[in-house]
Design goal:
Elements (H helix, E strand, L loop, with lengths): L1 H19 L2 E2 L5 E3 L16 E10 L4 E9 L8 E11 L2 E10 L4 E3 L4 E3 L5 E5 L6 E9 L2 E9 L6 E3 L3 E4 L3 E20 L2 E16 L3 H4 E10 L4 E9 L7 E7 L4 E4 L1 E12 L2 E11 L5 E13 L6 H11 L3 E10 L2 E12 L1
Antiparallel strand pairs: 1-13, 2-12, 3-4, 3-15, 4-5, 5-6, 7-8, 8-9, 9-10, 10-11, 11-14, 13-14, 14-15, 16-17, 16-24, 17-18, 18-19, 20-21, 21-22, 22-23, 23-24
């Protein structure tokens, strides 16, 4: 009886240790990236996906979200690349458009660091992130012609934590690379050939996952802020299998030092029904080192789904296959009682 009890205790203790180590972080060091790190990862797989996500805040009050993606669907359909655009508060209106192409149509130019989703279309990114980088998005939808070009003029150098790879259990991983933590931007936005030159600030990160996000994560919090002497930001993801752990990192630059921190856990303090869904609106991020951050998401102005472009039947099939639907909520938040000073992008699985 005594021997059996010891075995049971050891088994439970082993399970506890495994649960606590579900998220395995890379070395807690700042690793500055090379220009080559922006290109598509060589890893592939049945559910492999990769994203280059841009966020631009213009001086005229408008915002631009553009995400370039590579997705694999494990036989449900052929692998694809896609470009999704949200243009918010442009002349007090919001615009959304998404385009998708076969993965075989995508071309990557090593010499110019240019990823073109389809050479016959106008959706691409080009240039070294720390020197001469820009994105371009041209298409038409519902009688509106979109032509948008944004240059990142003075970016802070790209970095990640260690090698940028966060292990999730024994089989999956996510890579996180902050190519543009902060930059001044310039360019133009043209709707129906009415061209307006623009300036502002921008951010960009690059992630890959070895499985679909609906199977890996319950919630993801992304945030960016221009501070008095530098910037602050982060991308933190709460695993579905271990909601008391967090992958990803937060970072801050005070004009002299760049600091990276990992979160110990994220406490949801309050939820509200916003745009038809009960979502976290008040959270506390407890870090492994240093003081916590408290966020109040008090200004949500966009909700989109990765499946918005699908018909009802196709959407139902896709949700069943990937295990849910990813919803994105974007807006501004209070951080540590400083009002409306952080741009946030909350994503969760419905």
């Amino acid at each position: 009886m005594k021997q059996t009890l010891i075995v049971v205790v050891l088994f439970c203790f082993q399970n506890i240790l495994f649960a606590q180590n579900y998220v395995q972080n890379p070395d807690n060091t700042v690793n500055y990236l090379e220009a080559e790190d922006i290109k598509p990862n060589e890893q592939q797989g049945a559910y492999y996906n990769e994203n280059w996500a841009y966020h631009v805040v213009l001086d005229n009050g408008a915002e631009i979200y553009v995400t370039y993606s590579i997705s694999h669907f494990s036989g449900l359909r052929s692998a694809a690349s896609s470009g999704r655009l949200s243009l918010l508060n442009w002349n007090r209106k919001d615009y959304n458009v998404a385009r998708e192409y076969g993965i075989d149509e995508m071309v990557y130019d090593e010499e110019n660091y240019k990823m073109n989703l389809n050479p016959e279309r106008g959706i691409w990114i080009e240039g070294k992130p720390g020197e001469d980088h820009r994105f371009y998005y041209r298409t038409e939808k519902d009688g509106i012609h979109y032509d948008i070009s944004i240059n990142f003029d003075d970016p802070f150098k790209a970095f990640t934590q260690g090698d940028g790879v966060f292990k999730l259990g024994s089989q999956d991983e996510v890579g996180l690379f902050t190519h543009i933590p902060f930059s001044k931007v310039s360019g133009f936005v043209a709707l129906n050939h009415d061209t307006v030159e623009v300036k502002g600030i921008g951010f960009m990160d690059h992630t890959y996952q070895t499985n679909v996000a609906t199977r890996l994560f319950d919630t993801s919090y992304k945030f960016n802020q221009k501070t008095e002497n530098g910037f602050y930001g982060g991308h933190l993801m709460v695993p579905k299998d271990q909601p008391n752990e967090v992958s990803g990192y937060a970072y801050s630059y005070d004009g002299k030092n760049l600091t990276i921190r990992n979160a110990k856990n994220i406490e949801v303090k309050n939820r509200k029904n916003i745009m038809g869904k009960n979502i976290p609106t008040s959270i506390k991020i407890n870090y492994k080192e240093g003081p916590p951050d408290n966020f109040l998401f008090n200004n949500v102005y966009e909700k989109i789904s990765m499946l918005d472009e699908l018909s009802g039947f196709k959407k139902m099939i896709a949700k069943r296959f990937v295990g849910g639907e990813i919803l994105f909520y974007r807006g501004k938040a209070d951080r540590n009682n400083q009002q409306n000073n952080v741009y946030f992008n909350l994503s969760l699985v419905d």
